[in-house]
């Protein structure tokens, strides 16, 4: 029976594919205050701005490709049960070939009904005012905005609780509730923390790899594969 590697990924994984992240620019996301484009208040205040913002992000996503970090995690699936829990809203893990991906903060290539959160459909074109669900409610980005609940959080907790090995890649682990997932891993679970500016230090079961994802992830994946070959 394969051991389970649970992988928590953040913006640092996508950044190397060319996807810009709001944390890189003094809290601004592509020149916008995050609360203008990623909060229910921003949506109510100026839905056209919000829709245009995500239309631009969607176009950008369709122009980039998975990088070596994404690909290394796919290779790991040949030897381990790999469960990816990502804070990213892109589909680069799936495009690379990963088969078990849980999106904590939603998905950019999906939209949902403003009135019925369970009505979710795939969407790759522009979304504009007047695009509605069958019940005539405006469609909105399928993104978990600041101030909204994280529907997949309970599932993520259950996944982390089953980890034999935990990898944390490209995330500062300071944004809650996602940051709290580390505490659901079984006691003494080996943890690999891969980030060029790590927010934690080496510990008895924590190994810090202060590298970009495209360098650090293949390195650790090769180590894990070597251990069971």
The CATH architecture of the largest domain can be named as 3-Layer(aba) Sandwich
Spatial separation of the terminal alpha carbons = 14 Å
Task: List the strand order in the largest sheet.
Answer: 5-4-1-9-10-11
Count of alpha/pi helices: 8
Briefly, what CATH class of the largest domain? Alpha Beta
> CATH superfamily assignment of the largest domain?
TPP-binding domain
Q: Write down the overall geometry.
A: elongated
Mean pLDDT across all amino acids: 92
Q: Unreliable stretches, pLDDT < 50, 5 or more residues?
A: none
Key terms:
about 230 residues, alpha/beta, Rossmann fold, SIR2/SIRT2 'Small Domain', 6-stranded parallel beta sheet, 3-stranded antiparallel beta sheet, 11 strands, about 20% strand
Can you give a write-up of this model?
With 229 residues, this protein is of the alpha/beta class. The protein is built from eight helices and eleven strands. The chain has helices at residues 11-15, 34-37, 40-45, 47-63, 68-76, 92-96, 153-160, 213-228, and strands at 4-9, 28-29, 32-33, 81-86, 101-103, 106-113, 120-122, 139-143, 165-169, 191-194, 206-209. The two termini are 14 Å apart. The model has no long low-confidence stretch (mean pLDDT 92).
